């Protein structure tokens, strides 16, 4: 509802609303099961590609595509390295696909800011819970929270941006 009330263009509001639906699904699935299925993360990636193709300006689209392919190649290299080490279906692979999907939905600076926010929240959560970073935990909800903060920032443009 918060996204629908913004004074941003309709395409941006629909973009944020669709992305928040995917983020809710991915965050809840990772928090509940500790696992992000490949079907969900690939659907998130493909929807992000289609949404970016619709909402981005034609000049920005090739740059956005090149950056997304670069992040995809880096993450795919990590996944392939895991495949050769017989740890192909290990924890964290879904998080890597989710990060590639975040790159498809957001541009690179916003994705990097969402990633930094998510990692900071994840580390702070571990430090306050007292696991000492030994217990692991779901990263998906923190990635979703970082993206939602970026979406709110995009739609409402706080005073320090203007």
UniProtKB/TrEMBL annotation:
State one molecular function term (GO).
aspartic-type endopeptidase activity
One family from Pfam that matches here is Peptidase_A24
For this UniProt record, the keywords arranged alphabetically read as follows: Membrane, Transmembrane, Transmembrane helix
Q: Which GO terms describe its cellular component?
A: membrane
* Superkingdom of origin: Bacteria
Cite the Prepilin type IV endopeptidase peptidase domain residue spans from the record.
18-120
Q: Can you tell me where the transmembrane regions are?
A: 41-74, 108-127, 139-156
This chain belongs to the protein called IncI1 conjugal transfer prepilin peptidase PilU
> In which organism is this protein found?
Salmonella enterica (Salmonella choleraesuis)
């Amino acid at each position: 509802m918060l996204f629908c009330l913004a004074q941003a263009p309709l395409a941006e509001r629909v973009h944020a609303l669709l992305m928040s639906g995917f983020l809710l699904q991915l965050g809840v699935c990772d928090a509940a099961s500790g696992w992000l299925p490949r079907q969900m993360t690939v659907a998130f990636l493909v929807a992000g590609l289609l949404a970016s193709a619709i909402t981005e300006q034609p000049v920005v689209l090739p740059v956005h595509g090149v950056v997304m392919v670069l992040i995809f190649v880096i993450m795919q290299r990590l996944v392939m390295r895991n495949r050769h080490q017989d740890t192909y279906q290990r924890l964290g692979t879904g998080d890597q696909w989710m990060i590639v999907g975040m790159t498809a939905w957001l541009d690179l600076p916003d994705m990097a800011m969402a990633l930094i926010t998510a990692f900071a929240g994840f580390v702070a959560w571990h430090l306050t819970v007292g696991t000492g970073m030994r217990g692991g935990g779901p990263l998906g909800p923190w990635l979703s929270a970082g993206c939602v903060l970026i979406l709110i920032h995009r739609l409402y443009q706080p005073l320090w941006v203007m």
